[in-house]
Automatic annotation (TrEMBL):
The chain crosses the membrane at residues 33-51. This is RND family efflux transporter MFP subunit. Residues 149-207 form a coiled coil. NCBIfam families: RND_mfp. Residues 136-213 form the YbhG-like alpha-helical hairpin domain. Residues 252-321 form the CusB-like beta-barrel domain.
Length: 402
């Protein structure tokens, strides 16, 4: 009996415990549902707020852009360049060389060099010795020939004396006419031998005079390729190089089209590379042929002597080929792109147009336009980089510089 009550009590307790846990689980589920509902409501509220704000901002931005676009048109400074007198200049480059280069070598028999008297960069006069060749043997040969002249002259004097004595005896009949002829022949042969000896001596003296290496004309020594002790001869080649009178020239390379605008006498300004010196020159020869590979011709520009001009160096040249009429623009008006140079012009509808041009001479006054403009267009002077073809602008005219 007591056992049954105990069992019933335990069953009752277990049921109460089961109900407690079930009720707690239900409460947890309800809390999760409430939290989820609150989060969903917050998400919906945030989305609605964001959508409302973006819609309002978009409408305001569209209204603002429309108002700004319709409010102001950019004001652009333009100019009508017209036609001005400009120099037609051609740019070229090339190398410096001696206008008349003189290679100097061994003229005589040659021999051992005793001394070299000049250095590259020195000025020499015509006939001045550049190098001295040993002439010990040649001097003795000349002395021997000089002695042979005296021997021949003594024989000639003796023959002349015998002839004169024989002529005195002819009238007395002591000398035959045949003997007289022989004595005259002897006298003439002796005199001939004198002349031969004199010629041989003069030849030796001339040969000795050609032993030294001398300057063929006055000028500037450019190179030296001989040293004391060196044995030189006819096959030694060039020992010195000189620039006759120190005159230089520039061998400018010009394109086939530019060559047509250059003639003998065209003025030029030459600037050696690495310097700011401008040397005035003049075209003295134009190449009659065109290089088929480079399609260029050579123009030779005569230049006076200058220490900055060194044969073999490089230089730039500007040739003034004449004057002509062309539009003149400031450098800020000319732009460049992958397709070449261009300018921006304002058409009759006050819209921007892009006009390709060919640039001519660039001077301190501006850039001349060789082709692409007539001079009557309204050209944008500034702010061209911020404009595009088709843009509407308000042009303000500026007078062209004179």
């Amino acid at each position: 009996m007591n056992y049954e009550r105990k069992v019933d009590s335990m069953d009752s307790l277990a049921g109460a415990t089961h109900d407690f846990y079930e009720e707690a689980d239900n409460r947890r589920k309800r809390r999760r549902l409430i939290v989820g509902a609150v989060l969903a409501a917050l998400v919906l509220a945030a989305a609605w707020f964001a959508f409302s704000m973006s819609k309002g901002d978009g409408a305001a931005g569209a209204d603002g852009a429309a108002g700004t676009g319709a409010a102001n048109v950019p004001t652009i400074t333009v100019m009508v360049p017209g036609l001005q007198s400009v120099q037609t200049a051609i740019a070229a480059n090339g190398s410096i060389a001696a206008r008349r280069e003189m290679p100097v070598g061994v003229v005589g028999e040659g021999g051992q060099v005793v001394s070299v008297l000049v250095e590259p960069g020195q000025w020499v006069r015509a006939g001045q010795a550049l190098a001295v060749i040993d002439r010990t043997v040649q001097t003795q040969q000349a002395a021997s020939l000089a002695a042979s002249i005296r021997v021949a002259q003594a024989d000639a004097d003796l023959a002349q004396s015998e002839l004169e004595r024989a002529e005195a005896l002819v009238s007395r009949g002591f000398i035959s006419k045949a003997d007289m002829d022989r004595k005259r022949a002897t006298r003439d042969a002796a005199q001939a031998r004198v002349r031969v000896a004199q010629a041989q001596y003069k030849e030796a003296v001339a040969r000795n005079g050609r032993l030294n290496i001398v300057a063929p004309a006055a000028g500037l020594v450019l190179t030296r390729q001989v040293e004391p002790g060196q044995v030189v001869g006819a096959g030694s080649g060039v020992l010195f190089r000189m620039a006759k009178g120190g005159e230089m020239e520039m061998l400018a390379q010009l394109g086939e089209a530019d060559l047509q605008h250059v003639s003998v006498g065209t003025r030029a300004t030459v600037t050696p590379v690495g310097t700011s010196l401008q040397i005035a020159g003049q075209v003295w020869q134009k190449s009659p042929v065109i290089n088929p590979e480079t399609r260029q011709g050579t123009v030779r520009i005569a230049l006076p002597y200058s220490e900055t001009l060194r044969p073999g160096g490089f230089a730039d040249a500007r040739l003034v080929a004449g004057t002509g009429q062309a539009p003149l623009l400031p450098e800020s008006a000319v732009q460049s792109g992958p397709e070449g140079n261009f300018v921006l012009v304002v058409n009759k509808s006050d819209q921007i147009e892009r006009r390709p041009v060919k640039v001519g001479t660039v001077t301190d006054d501006g850039v001349s336009i060789a082709s692409g403009l007539t001079g009557n267009e309204r050209v944008v002077v500034l702010a061209g980089a911020f404009l595009n073809p088709g843009d509407k602008v308000k042009p303000v005219l500026q007078k062209s510089s004179q």
